[in-house]
Amino acid sequence: MKTRLSGTTSWSRLFFRRPATNNAEESYYAASHWKLMLRKLMKHKLARISLYVLAMMYLMVIFANIIAPQGLDSYDSENLNSRPSKLHWVDPQGNFHFIPFVYGLKSSRDPVTLRKIFVEDKQKWYPIQFFVKGTEYKFLGLIPGNVHLFGVEDPGRIFVFGTDSLGRDLFSRIVLGSQVSLTIPLVGVSISFFLGLLIGGISGYFGGFIDTVIQRVIEIIRSFPTLPLWMALSAAIPPRVPIVHMFFYITIIMAFIEWTELARVVRSKFMALRNEDYVMSARISGVSNARIIRVHLVPGFMSYLVVTMTLAIPAMIIGETAMSFLGLGIRSPAASWGVLLQEAQQMENVALYPWKLIPLGFVIITVLAFNFLGDGLRDAADPYK
Amino acid sequence: MSSYIVRRLIMMIPVVILISIIVFFIIQLPPGDFISGYAAKMTTSGEVMDEAALKLLRESYGLDQAWYVQYGKWIWGMISKGDFGYSLNYNRPVSSIIGQYMSLTLVVSIISMLFTYAVSIPIGIFSAVRQYSIADYIFTAFGFIGMATPNFLMAIILMYLSYVYVGDPMLGLFSPEFIDAAWTYAKFVDFFKHMIIPVIVIGLGSTAELIRVMRAQMLDEMDKPYMLTARSKGLSERRIIMKYPVRAAINPIVSTLGWSLTAVFTGSTITAIVLNLPLQGPVMYRALLSQDMYLAGTWLLFMAVCIVLGTLISDILLVWLDPRIRMRKGM
Amino acid sequence: MKAETATAKQSQDLLQVEELNIHFPTDHGMLKAVNGVSFNVYRGKTLGIVGESGCGKSITGKAIIGIQPKTSAISGSIKLGDVDLVKLKRNGREIRAIRGSKIAMIFQEPMAAFSPLYTIGNQIMESILLHRTKNKKEAAMLTVDILQRVGISNPEKRFHQYPHEFSGGMMQRAMIAMALSCEPELLIADEPTTALDVTIQAQVLDLMKQLQREFGMAIVFITHDLGIVAEMCDEVAVMYLGKIVEQATVREIYKNPKHPYTRGLLRSIPTIGSRKERLESIEGTVPIPINMPPMCGFFDRCQDRIPGVCDKREVPETQLSDNHRVSCFLYADTDNETEILS
User: Fold this and answer.
1) Which residues neighbour A73 within 8 Å (Cβ) at sequence distance 6 or greater?
2) How far apart are CA B48 and CA B54, in angstroms?
3) Helix pair B94-129, B293-321: axis angle to 10 deg
4) CA–CA separation, A145 vs A134, rounded Å?
5) How far apart are CA C34 and CA C20, in angstroms?
6) Which of B91, C124, C128, C292 lies 20 to 30 Å from A232, alpha-carbon distance?
């Protein structure tokens, strides 16, 4: 008998389910938990936008080689620290072009600081072309190709986000770097998810001595300061290992620390659910252990785990960025967003070439998107909301 | 209460021993050792060291023994003489280096944490009491940005802004003329100025997090039936808020004090590297890179022990603050 | 004749609630939780408000001391003497001076109604410190005294204990002590025994009756249990869907229930000795009081409904006798009815 009112929402919640018996409502009840969750998630505005943003990001990861106008190893010693190219639609004669173009660049010296700067050479202009041939690559590491989404004709150059101190196109490197920056957290979370589910499940289901041992181990791992431990472990990675190995090591390090949290969640959920009435009644009805775990326990907290995982990703992204930023993670010539930000370590670079902070924007947006998505999922997973 | 603390302290011992073993294992994990790195450095500067000399060096530092032997010696030295080993990088005992940097690190950490609490608790309360107001939205947005921005990059941006508007990027903790000077009023002011950016940067992430936690806790508590009881007594809203939900919401936050101090402590690592602060972070970083194993190991161990102690302090605070837990633990 | 008795009663009037409306704006329209409720509370007497969950009885009780949810819109009047409580500023100084001192309230779940972080003594004393004395020592003594009076043994020790050290029944006693600590003229009891065991229930009810005699206060007893009403109350108001459908003295209601809903409620009480095959219940569920057309809210569930009448207009209230009024077309005055029909 709850008569306390917490606000209008609870009222409408209370009343607006029962009377309507049209089809939409019926399908609402018939829908599976996941479908319901998705439907509720899409109602959460920030979460929906975040989902779209992340979808775009991961499309970028898949098609990185095609989207990036240049390869990872390409550099242009003529155009060091070049500012982002400006797109033009109107040429010096005042004619309008439907397809934007960029001007050629010529270098000159700033009369005051004597620094090399680039000015647009209005004599030469290069319209943007689509699906141009350029640097060779292997799409998804398998299919060779050389077609890029856009580009300009030689000797024109297009630098959407400018170039770094070696004359490498920042846009290409951000796009290619996303392959590392956005997959490490996913793979890392998957590994820690597996470990957490397995070990936490064992701990929670069997209890007793095994549980005590596992809990002590987790306690010890959690006693380590995360960042210094990351640093120590990263320092242990031999220098000059192949990029793939490097990637593998970093992911393992991330996952190694992260799984403890998930294991704790799984264990506590297991223990809580084990004593729920519906599990009790299943047990009394003679349902087997395996079936109880599969049918009653795991779905009971799976949505909760997905939420925990989603919210664990941002920490991994920032962690990888920090490691690479310090030179302890992914190392050049491989690219990740943290690697790209290395140049921003010097304040002069930030002051003179502010576009070198652009990768930071990608980090922030991704982290926010995962956070909002996690929040949305959490709300959606709550059956009482 | 005291028997509880003693029991917890005893339980800490095996944990610390295990941690120290793991620490040592991790530290010696990288291939090669300090001597090989040192030799490589010598070679690049034109000085070639022969194998015999290297072997002699290794022997003198005990680096030629198996890791568990080295570990045993290290731990034994620690327990018997308070000797944490020798830093090859600095050519000094580890303990003196730690002593030198630890006090400043502690000062910076504590100030950062005070800043965090002083900012986030009032904002959290305000945001909850004025839920969905414009200010609440602004603080929430700030919280998200603060959470999503890696603080080392925030450090760079603030440094840049300081450089543009104040004309000094405020690197380090002291201006050059004060580094070796005695503590005077001028030095204190200088120190204070240099503290602003580190404190903001180090505190930012946890401030954002704490605002969120405090706000959520407050909203939770303000929904509880005892609020109605308090109102029915005729208490003013302000008094009700301060006495009941604030106290209840602050409990978990205060009880994580020990833990968050260590979090700030370790969280300052990267910021200190970027801002070139004379704190433990950069020292640790260099020690790791050059395989100065006793320094790095002691450091890592020290941090881990800090966290264990922090957790203990948190647990004690929790018991002390919440009558229900106090009861359950039989006190 | 009616006017005479009314003035006679007026001298004993403590609280007059007139045309009280409490509405919640929702996404789907205005939810009328309380819709035109009027009743009087007399000094030293007990008024029971009975109804199913969600009928608006609890929120009516809260509205008397102005602690209804912030999101609601309230209109009508609640007069305590000459003061209209509805007009007072929400949580303002004037209403706060009344809360706890002149009107006190006890709640359904005693455990949740106390904060777990402070001692019982601290939380009871708060009220005394606010309304009776500023002297802490005196307040503590008064607190121990009132704890004793509600039958808590060893009150000096109990004073320093926390809520989790109390049993449910003890907690409800402590809550009563808190409410009575400033000797209020009116006590609002919102389902005070619902969360308690039956035996404890009886003890608490006895205690309340005894204290009512001692303190001479009026009680508004909100409950869904007609059995308790019979034991506790002088007068009963039956609420359904935000309205009082019938109000009469206890004796009258039990002997001569008029409204089909009241009758249904009475039939659904199990009585010892009469072994029916099945306990009767009222068919159907309570509709949602949002965008209700002008009709009887009980129409769908009513056994005696008159289609074409009951579902076409607002139900008028009929004064059957001095102490019995009902809102049902079955008893509507004929001239009243012709007035509506014409």
Assistant:
1) A333
2) 10
3) 40
4) 9
5) 7
6) B91
Q: What is the pLDDT of residues C311-321, one digit of tens each?
A: 888 888 888 88
Q: Do A5 and C285 touch (CB under 8 A)?
A: no
Name the residue with tokens 């509805």: C86
- A5 contact C CB<8A: yes
- Cβ–Cβ below 8 Å for C130 and B235: yes
CB spacing of C127 vs B233 below 8 angstroms: yes
Closest by CA to A157, choosing from A120, A201, A210, A205, is A120
The C-alpha angle with vertex C35 and arms to C34 and C40, in degrees rounded to 5, equals 80
* Token duo for residue A356: 């070198």
What is the third-level CATH fold of B98-328? Answer: MetI-like fold (1.10.3720)
Query: Contact B323/C91, CB-based, under 8 Å?
Result: no
Please say whether the dihedral angle defined by the alpha carbons of residues A71, A74, A76 and A82, taken in this order, is positive or negative: positive
Q: What count of other Cβ atoms lies within 10 Å of the Cβ of residue A352?
A: 14
CA distance A76 to A163: 9
B241 within 8 A of B129, measured Cβ to Cβ: yes
Pairing of strands B86-87, B92-93: antiparallel
User: Between β-strands C186-190 and C103-106, what pairing exists: parallel, antiparallel or unpaired?
Assistant: parallel
A229: amino acid identity, one letter:
L
Q: List the one residue out of C287, C281, C282 whose CA is nearest residue C242.
A: C287
Q: How far apart are CA C123 and CA C178, in angstroms?
A: 8
Burial letters C284-303, b for 16+ CB under 10 A, else e: eebbbbbebeebbbbbebbe
- Which burial class, exposed, middle or buried, applies to C168 when counting CB atoms under 10 A from its CB (0-12, 13-18, 19+)? middle
Tokens of C38: 């009027």
- Chains within contact range of chain C (3+ C-beta pairs < 8 Å): A, B
Is domain A184-380 in CATH 3.40.50.2300, yes or no? no
Question: Hey, are the CB atoms on C114 and B226 less than 8 Å from each other?
Answer: yes
Of chain B, the end-to-end C-alpha distance in Å amounts to 6
Contact between residue C41 and residue C186 where contact means Cβ atoms under 8 Å apart: yes
The DSSP-derived string for C172-196 is: HHHHHHHHHTT--SEEEEESTTTTS
**SS percent in chain B: helix, strand, coil, step 5:** 80, 0, 20
Determine the Cα–Cα distance for residues B197 and B204; give it in Å rounded to an integer: 10
- pLDDT, tens only, C239-297: 998 999 999 999 999 999 989 999 888 887 776 666 656 667 777 777 777 877 888 88
Q: Give the model confidence (pLDDT) of C139-148 as tens digits.
A: 999 999 999 9
The answer on pLDDT for A15 being more than 50 is no
- Mention every residue, 6+ apart, whose C-beta is less than 8 A from residue C16: C40, C41, C77, C78, C79
Q: Write the DSSP string, B15-75.
A: HHHHHHHHHHHHHT-SSS-HHHHHHHHHHHTT----HHHHHHHHHHHTTTS-HHHHHHHHH
| pTM of the entire predicted model | 0.78
d(CA A323, CA B150): 11
Question: Which chain A residues are closer than 8 Å to C54 by Cβ?
Answer: 3, 14
**Out of B226, B234, B327, whose CB is closest to C101?**
B234
Sorted by where each begins, the domain ranges of chain A are 74-167, 184-380
Q: Rounded CA gap, A230 and A235, in Å?
A: 8
Note whether A150 and A129 are within 8 A (CB). yes
Top pLDDT among A27 and B289 is at B289
**C24 Cβ partners below 8 Å, 6+ apart?**
A5, A8, A11, C30, C31, C33, C69, C71, C72, C73
Contact status, residue C309 vs residue C329, Cβ threshold 8 Å = yes
Q: Is A12 on the interface with C (CB under 8 A)?
A: yes
Q: Return the structure tokens found at A367.
A: 């982290």
